[in-house]
Give the backbone structure.
Amino acid sequence: MSPDGQPAAAAAIFVGHFTMPRGTTFTTHWHTFHQLAWSAKGLLRLRSEQGAWLLPPSLALWIPAGLPHTTEAAGDTVMRSPYVDPASCPHIDWTEPTVVSVGPLLQALIDHLVRTDLAPEARSRAEAVLLDVLHPVPVTSVSVTEPRDPRARTVARALAADPADGRPLSAWGAEVGASGRTLARLFVTETGLAFGQWREQLRMQAAMPFLAEGLPLESVARRVGYASASSFVAAFRRIVGLTPRQYFPVRD
């Protein structure tokens, strides 16, 4: 990698390899190359103006060149990110962050391209195959905006601390000094979501680390406010686009 943190010019793809203890954060930055943000181990949290993603090793995020983003290790993480010269992949026209699946072949190719002793011809062949096996998956980013108004913000922070709290806004209103109708209006105007939608997004976000730990679905459902595993799975699939087990496959 060059001194400015960009891939070496001789390769179309360079794989950056970083060990990131939990909480390690790369504040807002961007690259002149496309990035495929992937963790071989642990969880990556990525944010941009387009959304927020929590990615296990089964998923990676294609980040177009020039797009500002932040990267955080949500657990002890080994990050292996291919950086791709835009000139090498004119057929990939993704202008927004795009989630891709990481199966055994793509993982093996990334691991292979970490090597610095590959002959130019061997590297070029592996790079071409890697670009051919990038397959987007229909995953919706899950993120919540905290309201600015102190009354609505109090509700939001209490629910972030206990996503299973199912009290309606009318009950919260008595606690924070606002009517339920006022709180409902504040959530819409300050987060862009109706309160029920906002709470569902929050619950999905809260569920991700539990799912990554491999907790049983019944346990995760109860922790984030669902009466059963089936109702949680249905909500997760409707909001995220995959089932929990598709998003976090059980690994041997």
Notes: The radius of gyration is 20 Å. The domain at 150-247 is CATH 1.10.10.60 (Arc Repressor Mutant, subunit A). Residues 1-5 have pLDDT under 50 and may be disordered.
